Amino acid sequence: MIKFVCAAFAFLLAATGAANAQGQAAPVSDQEVSDVYIYLLGRLLVTRQQQLDFQQGFKWNELVHRKPGEVDWPNPNLDVAYSEAWVAADESSCTIVTVPKVEGRYYTVDFLNGWGETIANINERLFPKRPFGEFAVCYKESNVDIPAGATRINLPVKYSRVLARVEFG
Questions:
Q1: Which of 19, 152, 155, 156 is 20 to 30 A off residue 4, Cα-Cα?
Q2: What burial class does residue 138 get, using C-beta atoms within 10 Å of its C-beta: 0-12 exposed, 13-18 middle, 19+ buried?
Q3: Amino acid 96: pLDDT
Q4: From the CA atom positions of the chain, what is the Rg in Å?
Q5: Beta-carbon neighbour count of residue 162 at 10 Å?
Q6: DSSP secondary structure string, 56-107?
Q7: Are 91 and 168 in contact (CB under 8 A)?
Q8: Contact, 50 vs 116, CB < 8 A?
Q9: 3-class DSSP state for residue 125?
Q10: CATH topology (fold) of 64-167
């Protein structure tokens, strides 16, 4: 199965790759095939997680709070409370995220793209002048009014996964 999948990726890469002087597609290296496989596998895993989350009752733009110690991912911190959400924004809307004032303990609100990469992060290190309050999470190409006093965060995608963590202290 894996050989078939890798061969399919190699074909796709070759079909869309640069042509050599004779007009033929340039050969594809094993490393390029491996990179494509890993890239697509990462996307598949995030898509699978999204489907599972919504089957379990997730709703767009609503946080789900996990009980301490009851998260399904490897190596959870037992002294950290976890919350998750899927948020959406488009050319005509933003999502307002309210972060309470947290002092003397670790917290973060991470926004992840479709490959699981962090694309925005609300915490006191990245927002030292205003690490709490209202944040308008907007698609970067949107032109919408946001509430007075809200900090705008532009995302390069229309939907993302949110992972919020707060240390118990």
A1: 19
A2: buried
A3: 95
A4: 20
A5: 21
A6: TT--TT--EEPPTT---SSS--TTEEEEEEEEE-BTTBEEEEEE----SS-E
A7: no
A8: no
A9: coil
A10: Immunoglobulin-like (2.60.40)
Q: What is the mean pLDDT of each run of 10 residues along the chain (169 residues)?
A: 48 54 73 87 90 94 84 71 92 94 92 92 93 96 94 95 89
For the record, the structure tokens of 152 come out as 């705008």
User: Measured between alpha carbons, how far is 4 from 63 in angstroms, rounded to an integer?
Assistant: 40
Amino acid identity, residue 43? Answer: R
Local structure of 21: helix, strand or coil: coil
CA atoms of 63 and 163, how far apart (whole Å): 9
The helix/strand/coil state of 145 is coil
Distance CA 131, CA 127 (A): 5
For residue 114, what are the contacts with CB-CB under 8 A and spacing of at least 6? 43, 46, 47, 157, 160
- What tokens appear for 49 in the block? 């997680």
76: left (phi over 0), alpha (psi -120 to 50) or beta: beta
> What pLDDT is recorded for position 54?
95
Domain with CATH 2.60.40.1610 in the chain: 64-167
Structure confidence by residue, pLDDT tens digits, 81-124: 889 999 999 999 999 999 999 989 999 999 999 888 999 999 99
